[in-house]
TrEMBL record, chain A:
Source organism of the structure: Arthrobacter horti
Statement: the UniProt record of this protein carries the keyword Iron: yes
Name this protein carries in UniProt: Succinate dehydrogenase hydrophobic membrane anchor subunit
Residues that span the membrane, as ranges: 34-57, 77-97, 117-136
InterPro entries: SQR/QFR_C/D, SuccDH_FuR_B_TM-su
Pfam families the UniProt entry points to: Sdh_cyt
SUPFAM superfamilies linked: Fumarate reductase respiratory complex transmembrane subunits
Keyword set, alphabetical order: Heme, Iron, Membrane, Metal-binding, Transmembrane, Transmembrane helix
Localization per Swiss-Prot or TrEMBL: Membrane
CDD domains registered for this protein in UniProt: SQR_TypeA_SdhD_like
Keyword flag Iron: yes
Organism superkingdom: Bacteria
TrEMBL record, chain B:
InterPro entries: SdhC_prok (IPR039023), SQR/QFR_C/D (IPR034804), Succ_DH_cytb556 (IPR014314), SuccDH_FuR_B_TM-su (IPR000701)
Sorted UniProt keywords: Heme, Iron, Membrane, Metal-binding, Transmembrane, Transmembrane helix
CDD domains in the cross-refs: SQR_TypeA_SdhC_like
Lineage top rank: taxon: Bacteria
Pfam family, one: Sdh_cyt
Keyword Cell division: no
Ranges that cross the membrane: 20-38, 58-78, 99-120
Protein name stated in the entry: Succinate dehydrogenase, cytochrome b556 subunit
Subcellular location: Membrane
UniProt source species: Arthrobacter horti
Gene: sdhC
Amino acid sequence: MSTIQAPRSGNSRIALQYRRTSGSKGNFEMLAWLFMRLSGVVLVVLIFGHLFVNLMVGQGIHAIDFGFVAGKWADPFWQFWDLAMLWLAFLHGTNGVRTIINDYAEKTATRRALKTLLYAATVVVVILGTLVIFTFDPCPVLNGQLMDGSPSFCPAP
Amino acid sequence: MPTKPAGTLYRGREGMWSWVGHRITGVVIFFFLLVHVLDTSLVRVSPEVYTSVIGAYKNPLMAIGETGLVAAILFHAFNGLRVIAIDFWKKGAKYQRQMLWAVLIIWVVVFGAFAIRHLSLALGGH
């Protein structure tokens, strides 16, 4: 039977001789564990709702275009639905991938590099997504004219 | 001389395989999520660019991929609720095996319904 390695996530509950890094993380790992369960329940509701409204109703995927997004984000309800989904899904997913990196990347330098890449990608995508939801313009104008493909409800500028 | 350890309740059985499935589906969903935020962000470039890129999701090959993605999401969701029950319900650990079978049965029903509806919309003539 092969030896089971010590966890590489946090030090607080790992005996001194098995610690791979110094310093204490407090109860971060417990809070992360709790967050996965709480966000998981909320994400089931948010993502099932998202899939049902976007893919199951009416014409399903054929209805999705710029005007479809404009119609949804005209309502603050869907803006906050999508915002909550974006943040919770990324925090949940990033923590999951962090756990997987800790489990399989044995070298400290490899773990550090992969987690830096992971966190950078998460920060960029979450900020980008948040800005897109709140700066969305349903009737974008370029050089004094409505951009091609704008929804038919847009008034002439 | 230590004797060979007996088989465990976990290794190679339902508990382990559901954990493997949870990890794999989780990673798949995470990478799709990265792409999905980027494609949605094209609404800030122009209506034409967004509509043409999102149009790529409407071809039959992508419809198969979307169906696979939803299969992964549904497993991750139902098995995640099972993990929560194992952790917080007093009898959760005792019934983890039965709960996995419940997860798989619910998964077949919900995934079947989704696949029929989505594939008939996506592959149907338009």
